Amino acid sequence: MKSTIALSALLFSLNSFASGGFFCDAKVTTLMDQTDIQISGSTGHVVGNPLIGDITIAVDGTEAKISKQQVVGYWGEGPVLQLHVVDPQAQYSVIILNYDQNSGTGELVLDYGEVVARTYDVSCSFE
After folding, report:
1. Which of 21, 77, 115, 125 has a 20 to 30 A CA-CA distance from 42?
2. What pLDDT shows up at residue 51?
3. Looking at the predicted structure, is the pLDDT value of residue 9 above 50?
């Protein structure tokens, strides 16, 4: 019985080595105004998709969740973050984010709500 409990604990811990996340801040400037965008997510070192939760997006302070199932592409190993999120019907891209922490440069293509834009004014941090 003790060996069964120990084996179970070991198996359950294999998928949770560590967790972290990312937080990105972007500014979209139009002729009329500036929109502040924040995108964040939680990640873990697990087999398969490393996202362990939904994506959070805030547009000018109004926050919403985007389902993890809408993320069709994610790469976040090392200093590079790449994120591709589609709408719930998988008809168009909602977020395409590329960021290189080494160079401090990135690009965000956004089609979310009433904000349709591309910006290079992106800053991301990783945990």
Report:
1. 115
2. 78
3. no
Residue 56, classified by CB atoms within 10 Å of its CB into exposed (0-12), middle (13-18) or buried (19+), is middle
Looking at residue 13, what DSSP letter applies?
H
User: Which residues are paired to 43 by β-bridges?
Assistant: 20, 51
**Count: domains in the chain:** 1
Between β-strands 93-100 and 105-112, what pairing exists: parallel, antiparallel or unpaired?
Answer: antiparallel
| pTM (global) more than 0.85 | no
Half-sphere exposure of 18 (CA within 13 A, CB side): 3
13 is a domain residue: no
Q: Where do the H-state alpha helices sit in 1-127?
A: 2-13
User: Sign of the C-alpha dihedral, residues 25, 29, 35, 39?
Assistant: negative
How far is it, in rounded angstroms, from Cα 98 to Cα 95? 10
Q: Check if the beta carbon of residue 96 is closer than 8 Å to that of residue 84.
A: yes
> Has residue 5 been placed in a domain?
no
Provide the residue range defining the domain that includes 53: 19-126
Q: Is residue 56 part of a domain?
A: yes
Residue 15 has pLDDT above 60, yes or no: no
